[in-house]
């Protein structure tokens, strides 16, 4: 634990992300975690539990609602018209905080590796509900909330995901 540095607490049961500094909550954000519940296994579509850290921060230079595919901006800006053209897409928008597990055998390495599972905190269309588990494993946030959070973090920030 790095005293003085911000850290993130994600509560699956409350569908809430809390930004903490020391023992003080600086901000709370509504989120949406996996529709399949919690779990570490690859291809489970579940949100992993346990201690993580932000491995990479992607999209800081991109406009709000930028579309990402394979962690790269496509140059598109999300809109209802774009959504109608690509109804099968799982929209990853605005920013990506790519998580890496810190607990070997639980959420790191082998078939339970959060980073290899491409578990992110990412933006989602405003039409997607928050507070209801609907993702494919990632943690979804409102785009403006994610941009505000992103500005307060650095790679290596600690993230705890609890049931």
Descriptive account of the structure:
This is L,D-transpeptidase. With 163 residues, this protein is mostly beta strands. The chain has a single domain, classed as L,D-transpeptidase catalytic domain-like (Beta Barrel), CATH 2.40.440.10. Helices cover 9% and strands 39% of the residues. The chain has two helices and ten strands. The chain has helices at residues 80-85, 143-150; strands spanning 7-11, 16-21, 24-32, 50-58, 66-69, 72-77, 92-101, 120-124, 139-142, 158-162. It has an eight-stranded mixed barrel. It is globular. The two termini are 20 Å apart.
Short description:
The protein has 163 residues and is mainly beta. Helix content is 9%, strand content 39%.
What topology does this entry show?
Elements: E1 7-11, E2 16-21, E3 24-32, E4 50-58, E5 66-69, E6 72-77, H1 80-85, E7 92-101, E8 120-124, E9 139-142, H2 143-150, E10 158-162
Parallel strand pairs: 1-10, 8-9
Antiparallel strand pairs: 1-2, 2-3, 3-9, 4-7, 4-10, 5-6, 5-7, 7-8
């Amino acid at each position: 634990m790095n005293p003085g540095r911000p850290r993130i607490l994600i509560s699956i049961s409350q569908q809430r992300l809390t930004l903490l500094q020391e023992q003080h909550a600086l901000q709370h954000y509504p989120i949406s975690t996996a529709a399949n519940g919690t779990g570490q296994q690859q291809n489970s579509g579940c949100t992993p539990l346990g201690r993580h850290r932000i491995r990479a921060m992607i999209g800081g230079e991109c406009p709000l609602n930028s579309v990402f595919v394979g962690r790269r901006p496509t140059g598109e800006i999300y809109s209802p018209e774009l959504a109608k053209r690509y109804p099968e897409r799982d929209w990853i928008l605005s920013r990506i905080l790519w998580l890496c597990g810190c607990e070997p055998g639980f959420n790191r390495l082998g078939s339970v590796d959060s980073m290899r599972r491409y578990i992110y905190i990412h933006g989602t269309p405003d039409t997607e509900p928050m507070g209801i588990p609907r993702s494919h494993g990632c943690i979804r946030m409102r785009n403006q909330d994610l941009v505000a959070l992103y500005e307060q973090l650095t790679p290596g920030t600690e993230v705890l995901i609890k049931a």
